[in-house]
Fold this protein.
Amino acid sequence: MLILGIAGGTGCGKTTVVNQIVEQLPENEVGVISQDSYYNDLSHMSRKERTKINFDHPNSIDFNLLIEHIDQLREGKTVDTPIYSFVEETRMKETIPTPPRKVMIVEGILVLSNPKLRDLFDIKIFVHADSDERLIRRLQRDTQERGHDLNKVLTRYQTAVKPMHLQFIEPSKEFADIIIPNNRYNTVAVDVVRTIINNNLT
Ligand SMILES: Nc1ncnc2c1ncn2[C@@H]1O[C@H](COP(=O)(O)OP(=O)(O)O)[C@@H](O)[C@H]1O
Ligand SMILES: Nc1ccn([C@@H]2O[C@H](COP(=O)(O)O)[C@@H](O)[C@H]2O)c(=O)n1
């Protein structure tokens, strides 16, 4: 199994890059795991309490479960990936069975910041986009897709997203084997990653 870790700040385009990589690979040979699925289960908290959580701090992620699942996938076992709702801001009761694939992609803002998780990756990728570009994309996405209003997005950006980005995410760039500049769509870089994967599939 070849395991890729893809990190980068919010809105840099990780999900988009992953979709572009996966699009042209055989469906049954690639699997994707998102760090977002592993936000801690906060169902014991009220909605009001949940809004106070810093969702950009590493402590908000159940890294132990994520690492355990990757270990199980490497052993050839199917894992039950949690489902996270951005609207409810907690984990759902349902899970998704995720089978092991020849290539597994693990993407998320903090996947290169956790040393134990980082060690599991054969290839480490950091997607870079400037902070103003990321904020614009995040504003559009969170208001259109994640049910947040403008004020909430901006307050969260100032109080959690930006400080945590500077403390944990940007420094994790130094661990990357490949940095993808993504201020605009970067088909060349995506092709390079796809070629590396294809070489490993044959
Ligand atoms: N290179 C790009 N240029 C313009 N918009 C982009 C680019 N990459 C992604 N986007 C858009 O920005 C938003 C955030 O992208 P996404 O892939 O969800 O980022 P991430 O997973 O890193 O948070 C989405 O609406 C996506 O369509
Ligand atoms: N309830 C939540 C949980 C997380 N977030 C934000 O998601 C961002 C990470 O996801 P990306 O797809 O943008 O990489 C992170 O910056 C959290 O602030 C949220 O808004 N609400």
User: Anything to note?
Assistant: The first strand starts at residue 2 and ends at 7. The two ends are 12 Å apart (CA to CA).
